[in-house]
């Protein structure tokens, strides 16, 4: 018996703060976007950069964790599966969206990196506080 495989892993940066809502049955669902960039040199030696944006959907307890801890600009590892959604617009136009349904999330990078997007921290005052806490 053969099985298929639908698994995706990305590392990138959140494009905006996660948005959480609840289904009519009360199940939490969180959505956010992740930007993944890559660089390469062409045959003529020219440097190229490309950024791919991924829509991420997270359900259940992990949805609540993502909403609570993730912020715009934070580096994150996401693992899950690809899912294609299809719907018809108000005027009959057909739409398609591919998204990652995540079942694993890991926060990466320095915790201060994500917080820097929401508030400026004076590094000298932070160092002084740390020194004051340890008087020896």
What this model shows, in words?
- The protein has a five-stranded mixed β-barrel with strand order 1-3-4-6-5.
- It has a single domain (8-133), classed as Nucleic acid-binding proteins (OB fold (Dihydrolipoamide Acetyltransferase, E2P), Beta Barrel), CATH 2.40.50.140.
- Helices cover 19% and strands 49% of the residues.
- It is an alpha+beta fold and 136 residues long.
- The protein starts with 7 loop residues before the first strand and ends with a helix.
- The protein has helices at residues 60-69, 111-115, 123-133, and strands at residues 8-14, 19-22, 28-41, 47-59, 75-88, 94-107.
- The longest helix is centred in the last third of the chain and has 11 residues, at 123-133.
- It is globular.
- Mean pLDDT is 84; it is low at 117-136.
What fraction strand? Answer: over 45%
What CATH calls the topology is: OB fold (Dihydrolipoamide Acetyltransferase, E2P)
CATH superfamily: Nucleic acid-binding proteins
End-to-end gap: 67 Å
How many strands appear in the DSSP assignment?
Answer: 6
| Main β-sheet, spatial strand arrangement | 1-3-4-6-5
Rg, Cα atoms, Å:
20 Å
DSSP summary: helix tally = 3
CATH architecture: Beta Barrel
Order of helices and strands: EEEEHEEHH
List segments where confidence is low: pLDDT < 50 over at least 5 consecutive residues. Answer: 117-136
Mean pLDDT: 84
Features:
single chain, 136 residues, alpha+beta, OB fold (Dihydrolipoamide Acetyltransferase, E2P), five-stranded mixed β-barrel, 3 helices, 19% helix, disordered C terminus
